[in-house]
Amino acid sequence: MAAETGAESVEAAESADAADAVKETRGDADGAGGPDDSWGEVAPDAARRLLLAAVEAFAERGFHATTTRDIASRAGMSPAALYIHYRTKEELLYQISRVGHERSVRILTEAGNSAVTPADRLAAAVRAFVRWHAERHTTARVVQYELNALAEEHYAEIVALRRRSEEILRGILEDGVAAGDFTVPDIRGTALAVLSLCIDVARWFRSGGTRTPEEIGELYAGLVLRMVGAPAAPAAETADGADRGA
Amino acid sequence: MAAETGAESVEAAESADAADAVKETRGDADGAGGPDDSWGEVAPDAARRLLLAAVEAFAERGFHATTTRDIASRAGMSPAALYIHYRTKEELLYQISRVGHERSVRILTEAGNSAVTPADRLAAAVRAFVRWHAERHTTARVVQYELNALAEEHYAEIVALRRRSEEILRGILEDGVAAGDFTVPDIRGTALAVLSLCIDVARWFRSGGTRTPEEIGELYAGLVLRMVGAPAAPAAETADGADRGA
DNA sequence: CCGCCGCCTAAGCGGCTGCTCAGCAACCGT
DNA sequence: ACGGTTGCTGAGCAGCCGCTTAGGCGGCGG
């Protein structure tokens, strides 16, 4: 009962306050870079601290190598406190994974709708997706690489979300090919390759590196445009009116 | 003592019989596709079976979720037998990781030297690297995604090998830019992106899929050539004399 | 002021973990 | 025929795992 309360709060933060969550994400992304605080409005304070601790621990050592004692002590609590807010260790991973995947789908959807031409839409999607994987690389690492530690039914739900992401990207590629803007021999394979490129950023990105998330997003957007055979130099990130290239 | 014997045998298989190993790899790649038998000439038979069992178990569930009892029973032995051939469970992972990374470096080196023009060299490298990740995806998954379960000193050694791979690829890109064949704004970043693309194949590839390893290698080689701004349609895999394009 | 309730801890339970060890069977050169 | 080496097993140890339980503390409505 008490455990269920914590879980539902997370759910509420993602469904009821969806609009706010988006706004908050934009704000964070602009200001760029405190710690991983994508979990702004999660349930009681303790539940959020536990979730954040779990994200860090899972990202560092992986789900199976992380102990509940480790998570609890990172959050400054006793091991038993974890079970007041979450039923099991796996549910912690599930919440992280679900919220992260929902955010992924939203990022791709919004970026994919933020422009008119397929090239601009593709560039915006890659730019935003890569930026998220770099900026929130701790969260993203857990989201992208720990999913097969999930229980069967949770896993199935997450896989469905991942398919959504793939479909969104494939849709953009199909539009580009149909419009004659892209030249792609294998749309499904290419969509997969683009996703690979973006996702893998979470694996190697470190905060102290030479490139900022924005720079990597920009670089990758360019690479992807060339991959699909589109002419170079797209517009700016948002409909900003500032053409510089060409 | 006894444990050390097993470890050394693996080492011998990679250093003394290096030339044979290469030949055998080529043979397997051509015939394409039994189970993961990249471990052809490892020490006594039992040590090889244990290694193969460990590869499968690590790939399925991850290093930390795999028990020594699981590995042993897959190899048809008692848990204690493992410690006759390997000192610890981690050493098993280390051997897998080391041999796999050495093979990666060799694949990239040979493919990178198998042609003259940077475009052909890049295409050959990507084609071979992707093919390995698809064909041997079980091994590759462990090699690429379980390395942070390694002990500190083993990890450092593996990271050095990974840097070698990156340097090889970067070298090809630099040659191409110097020759005016490639147009790349950020060589390091692009090299990383190309590696990402290849490595990530091990994450999503399944044996029953619609595409063969060769087709994926071909597709990805084309994508990468466009990424670096090179003209399309390169020559065949080995110096085969058959020009078809351009 | 009381009694209740949400949040937390100390202690600990059963079970599984990586790993060890004594012993044994099969094979070896002599 | 035989002592020794090699490869393996059955049993088991110490320690850590996820998770539970009983109880306490502080704030809040009445």
UniProtKB/TrEMBL annotation, chains A, B:
Extract the DNA-binding region annotation as residue ranges.
67-86
The organism encoding this protein is Streptomyces radiopugnans
Q: Which UniProt keywords apply?
A: DNA-binding
Record keywords: Methyltransferase included?
Answer: no
Q: Residue spans with biased composition (Basic and acidic residues)? A: 20-29
One term of GO molecular function: transcription cis-regulatory region binding
Bias class Low complexity marks the residues at 1-19
* A matching Pfam family: TetR_N
Checking PANTHER family in the record gives: HTH-TYPE TRANSCRIPTIONAL REGULATOR RUTR, HTH-TYPE TRANSCRIPTIONAL REPRESSOR BDCR
The uppermost taxa in this organism's lineage are: Bacteria, Bacillati, Actinomycetota, Actinomycetes, Kitasatosporales
| Protein's recorded name | Transcriptional regulator, TetR family
* Region of interest (Disordered), residue spans: 1-41
The HTH tetR-type domain covers 44-104
Question: PROSITE patterns per the record?
Answer: HTH_TETR_2
Claim: DNA-binding is one of the keywords in the record = yes
**InterPro entries (UniProt xref):** Homeodomain-like_sf, HTH-type_TetR-like_transc_reg, HTH_TetR, KstR2_TetR_C, Tet_transcr_reg_TetR-rel_C_sf
